[in-house]
């Protein structure tokens, strides 16, 4: 019973995109590891930019710095 957790920033991932992530993740585990899709779980966690860090600062700050360069 595999569980896949996908973490993304909360920047408007659509329902269609989430469905595609779930489908492709399930298909991959079925094809690569021969796992039963009926017992494969995919979790999508949306993380606020201020709760995601990169290079010692929040992702929100990091992106602002990138835009100013």
TrEMBL record:
What Enzyme Commission number(s) appear in the record?
A: 5.3.2.-
Task: Give yes or no: UniProt keyword Isomerase.
Answer: yes
Pfam families in alphabetical order: Tautomerase (PF01361)
> Could you confirm whether the keyword Isomerase appears in this record?
yes
- What family is this? Belongs to the 4-oxalocrotonate tautomerase family.
Keywords, comma-separated and alphabetical: Isomerase
Give the annotated active site: 2
The superkingdom listed in its UniProt entry is: Bacteria
Output this protein's name.
Tautomerase
Where does the 4-oxalocrotonate tautomerase-like domain start and stop, copy by copy? 2-56
Q: Which InterPro entries match?
A: 4-OT, 4-OT-like_dom, Tautomerase/MIF_sf
Q: Name the enzyme's class.
A: isomerase
Q: Name one GO molecular function term.
A: isomerase activity
């Amino acid at each position: 019973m595999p569980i896949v957790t996908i973490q993304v920033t909360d920047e408007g991932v659509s329902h269609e995109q989430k469905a595609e992530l779930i489908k492709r993740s399930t298909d991959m585990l079925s094809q690569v590891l021969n796992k039963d899709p009926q017992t494969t779980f995919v979790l999508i966690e949306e993380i606020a930019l201020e709760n995601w860090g990169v290079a010692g600062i929040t992702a929100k700050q990091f992106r602002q710095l990138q835009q100013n360069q």
